[in-house]
Specification:
Elements: E1 9-10, E2 67-70, E3 91-97, E4 100-107, E5 124-132, E6 138-146, E7 153-155, E8 161-165, E9 168-172, E10 179-183, E11 188-193, E12 199-205, H1 221-229, E13 231-238, E14 241-249, E15 261-268, E16 272-279, E17 285-291, E18 297-302, E19 305-310, E20 318-323, E21 328-333, E22 338-345, E23 351-359, E24 374-383, E25 389-395, E26 405-407, E27 413-418, E28 421-426, H2 427-432
Parallel strand pairs: 1-14
Antiparallel strand pairs: 2-28, 3-4, 4-5, 5-6, 7-8, 8-9, 9-10, 11-12, 12-13, 13-14, 15-16, 16-17, 18-19, 19-20, 20-21, 22-23, 23-24, 24-25, 26-27, 27-28
């Protein structure tokens, strides 16, 4: 449990409990908590959006990057074939600010085993490179030892990034000098953020409590399993660093959080789900009613708009956008060729992106994924308020973990790892490119 930050309240986490899986379906890299909704009167849908075709097969025929930085000279090697590196965070690509880009990637080599992370059974080396824009000049470079293959770097949208190494979370900038922020006492299982990056949620494996020993009662096998998986959740404000709330849940899960509080979805009669906002301070507030055969996965896009992944029937999945007044703003049907969709937020909130593996043919849910099943990764960019797809891009190699695309702090540019090059595009140019016919 993190205890070095001032001020905390206890968060009601009774509806937090869906296991976090190494799955890009929401939540996010991870991920899975279910929280709120207010009873919504039926609202006529303004328009069904998101029926645009898949990404273009040849990006070069559509738009040229404003900046192209070869990454082979940095020591980058493309990943192996799927599914050997399933869910491994092998690359991280982030804007630090308007003129600096961070590129971090796995580098091969022999390592001397150390005991800096006692609970870890793996160790690897990652190279972090700070690139100046638009020249691509290397300003700073450093190698980091990491102790797992989970996500390890997140942009904070204020010229800083958050770096996780074992149980230590540090803030770094373009100088790559770490400034300690959090030192967790247990294994860090997940890190996530509110849309505006003002709050981070850190989940760590709870240490066995003293009251679990010598209690006189022998716990059942089921109770022992639950005790072994307990997860401590800390909600931490970043400006300035402070403890906002603390909760404990049975196992790690994705927790949709906004600057105001936690979103939760609760079941209701007739295939309905009530979405609530549970503020860190103040009374619970009902937000919307979502109709779905499956439990919707809730993900905030901004502090006043969220996306629910729903099942209108037994064969379809739809992404729906709601504002915090309960209005259904748009619907985006999930295409059959989309696999492992990942929501990517754009800092200014005007757009968002859905990145997904592009399947070459229909695939049953339980079929193993092979290299023949996937021919690239689609990045579809949408207008936040209307749900209209405004741009699309296809990239290779594909990654099921880490971060291979990012948007500049003003939301005007997209950086993407495409082949052996980091390419940077003006979003306005991507929007002008013709939408390709279905592949």
């Amino acid at each position: 449990m993190i205890s070095a930050l001032p001020s905390e309240t206890h968060a009601n986490a009774k509806s937090i409990g869906k296991p976090a899986a190494a799955d890009r379906s929401w939540p996010i890299r991870w991920r899975g908590v279910v929280l709120l909704l207010f009873a919504l009167l039926p609202v006529p849908l303004r328009a069904e959006k998101g029926h645009a075709s898949p990404a273009a097969a040849a990006n070069a025929d559509l738009v040229r990057p404003g900046v192209a930085i070869p990454v082979g000279p940095l020591g980058y090697l493309p990943p192996g074939e799927l599914p050997a590196f399933y869910y491994y965070a092998l690359v991280e690509l982030h804007f630090i600010d308007a003129s600096h880009l961070m590129f971090a990637f796995n580098v091969p080599g022999l390592l001397k085993r150390d005991n800096k992370c006692p609970d870890s059974d793996s160790q690897r080396m990652v190279r972090a490179v700070v690139l100046q824009l638009p020249s691509g000049h290397v300003l700073k470079q450093e190698d980091w030892e990491l102790y797992d293959f989970a996500d390890f770097l997140w942009g904070l949208d204020d010229g800083q990034l958050l770096l996780r190494r074992c149980t230590q979370l540090d803030v770094i900038g373009a100088d790559l000098q770490p400034r300690p922020l959090i030192d967790a006492s247990g294994e860090v299982q997940d890190v996530s953020f509110s849309p505006d990056r003002s709050i981070t949620v850190v989940q760590e494996k709870a240490k066995p409590g003293a009251n679990a020993q010598d209690s006189g009662n022998v716990p059942s096998i089921l109770e022992q399993g639950v005790m072994a998986q307990r997860t401590e959740v800390d909600f931490i404000g970043l400006h300035p660093p402070r403890m906002i709330a603390h909760a404990q849940i049975p196992f790690p899960g994705a927790i949709p959080v906004t600057a105001q509080g936690i979103l939760e979805s609760l079941t209701a009669p007739h295939d309905r789900w009530i979405v609530n906002l549970r503020p860190f301070q103040g009374p619970l507030r009902q937000i919307a009613t979502v109709h779905s055969l499956c439990q919707p996965e809730i993900r905030p896009i901004t502090n006043s708009l969220f996306m629910a992944t729903t099942c209108p029937n037994r064969t379809e999945t739809v992404f729906q956008g709601y504002d915090f007044h309960g209005s259904l703003l748009w619907q985006i049907p999930r295409r059959p060729d989309q696999y492992l969709p990942l929501l990517i937020l754009v800092p200014n909130g005007a757009h968002f992106a859905i990145e997904s593996l592009h399947l070459t043919h229909p695939r049953a849910a339980l079929d193993p994924l092979t290299k023949e099943d996937v021919d690239g990764e689609d990045i579809d960019i949408y207008d936040t308020l209307s749900g209209v797809r405004v741009a699309t891009f296809q990239t290779t190699p594909v990654y099921t973990g880490g971060h291979n695309v990012d948007f500049s702090p003003d939301g005007a540019r997209m950086a993407v790892l495409h082949g052996g090059t980091i390419e940077i595009y003006d979003l306005s140019d991507l929007m002008k490119a013709p939408q390709a016919a279905p592949r």
